[in-house]
Amino acid sequence: MKNIAVFASGSGSNFQAIIDAVKSGKLHVNIKLLVCDKPGAFAVERANTENIPRFVFTAKNYNSKVEYEEDILRHLKNNEVDFIVLAGYMRLIGSTLLGEYEGRIINIHPSLLPAFPGKDAIGQAIDAKVKVSGVTVHYVDAGMDTGPIIAQKAVELSDDENIESLQEKIHRVEHELYPAVIEKLLS
Ligand code: GAR
């Protein structure tokens, strides 16, 4: 079985969906490590509850991205991580991690890329008044949400859609899609 690390910055509901898929036997990977850049994030509590080792860091305590990514890399190597799954990790991956893991890092993004890249993809979709948005899983490269697309799923917007309601719809799709894609890639 492959060893994965999940990177998250926030609530970690996708992290939880991955944990639950492993527990229920739908996903055959070892979750070796949570990497989180926000000490107060709920994702960290989820890791504690599940006894998953975690590396939590604060970027501003380092002199550069290279320095904190070297620290991350040390933890990945110590845990023999084969594959990196970004799940709401709100930082661009830099050359240090790409140098070691390019082609073995995936991300989930709450829009149908290349539409609405970057932050607040859900708010961007609401503002643009689109009728369809969705979810994309893609390989990570040096750009912002630009790597090769692996899977996409559409979500329809109702006429009175708001950020909260669209976020809920998107999360529901993400929690199914992400574990299924990881299983397909790694099992
Ligand atoms: C997810 O919707 C994910 O697609 C998005 O952050 C959310 C994290 O939710 N990622 C991005 O916007 C990346 N550009 P979670 O912490 O509950 O998994």
Automatic annotation (TrEMBL):
Annotated Formyl transferase N-terminal domain residues: 2-182
Pathway involvement of the protein, from the record: Purine metabolism; IMP biosynthesis via de novo pathway; N(2)-formyl-N(1)-(5-phospho-D-ribosyl)glycinamide from N(1)-(5-phospho-D-ribosyl)glycinamide (10-formyl THF route): step 1/1
Cross-referenced CDD domains: FMT_core_GART
Residue positions of the active site: 109 (proton donor)
Binding positions for N(1)-(5-phospho-beta-D-ribosyl)glycinamide per the UniProt entry: 12-14
UniProt entry keywords in alphabetical sequence: Purine biosynthesis, Transferase
Site (Raises pKa of active site His) residue list: 145
Homology family: Belongs to the GART family.
Alphabetized InterPro entries for the sequence: Formyl_transf_N, Formyl_transf_N_sf, GART, GART_AS
Record bears the keyword Secreted: no
UniProt-listed NCBIfam families: PurN
Gene expressing this chain: purN
PROSITE patterns, per the entry: GART
EC number: 2.1.2.2
Annotated protein name in UniProt: Phosphoribosylglycinamide formyltransferase
Catalytic activity: N(1)-(5-phospho-beta-D-ribosyl)glycinamide + (6R)-10-formyltetrahydrofolate = N(2)-formyl-N(1)-(5-phospho-beta-D-ribosyl)glycinamide + (6S)-5,6,7,8-tetrahydrofolate + H(+)
One Pfam family linked to the record: Formyl_trans_N
Transmembrane regions listed in the UniProt entry: none
Listed GO MF terms: phosphoribosylglycinamide formyltransferase activity
Residues the record lists as binding (6R)-10-formyltetrahydrofolate: 65, 90-93, 107
Cited PANTHER family: PHOSPHORIBOSYLGLYCINAMIDE FORMYLTRANSFERASE
Domain of life: Bacteria
Biological function: Catalyzes the transfer of a formyl group from 10-formyltetrahydrofolate to 5-phospho-ribosyl-glycinamide (GAR), producing 5-phospho-ribosyl-N-formylglycinamide (FGAR) and tetrahydrofolate.
